[in-house]
Amino acid sequence: MKPANFRELIPLLHRAGVDFILIGGGAASAHGVARTTFDVDVLCARSGENLQRIINALRDFEPYPRGAPRGLPFLWDAATLKAGLNFTLSTTLGFLDLLGEVTGGGTYEQVLPFTIIGEIYGMPVRIVTLEKLIQLKRAAGRPKDFEVLSELQALLDERNKQAE
Predict the structure, then answer these.
(1) 6-15 and 48-58 are packed helices; what angle lies between their axes, rounded to 10 degrees?
(2) Would you call 32 helix, strand, or coil by DSSP?
(3) Which of 1, 74, 89, 152 has the fewest CB atoms nearer than 10 Å to its CB?
(4) Could you tell me which of 15, 16, 35 has the C-alpha nearest to residue 25?
């Protein structure tokens, strides 16, 4: 498995005007964690307009449910996105997790107050705060989330120490 292509996926979503929050391993990297992540995790607003922007942005990059056998009926349109909530996708640009809700945080609108604007590849990107990312990782409870928690907590402790 190769790392996610942040260099293309993040600018693509940004240029399309998609309302999203970078979470997961990408947010951890943005906060300073030195780990490789294999997918781009974004929490997206679920408005009809935003879903259509996502559809338009990714249409040419062959989005398909990750892990599903090829050939299954999968229609890439706003109705499909609206009917589901969270999509783990394989694209020609790499793995992308489009989330309508995240465990321990809720929807885009619920997580929005816990974000900062960071610069990624020269463009402003909304990123979940370090404190909220720690909460999300704890709530997810997967072994890979627990592995990164100590590093995230050490970063937070260091930032708090510097702020004193």
Answers:
(1) 130
(2) coil
(3) 1
(4) 35
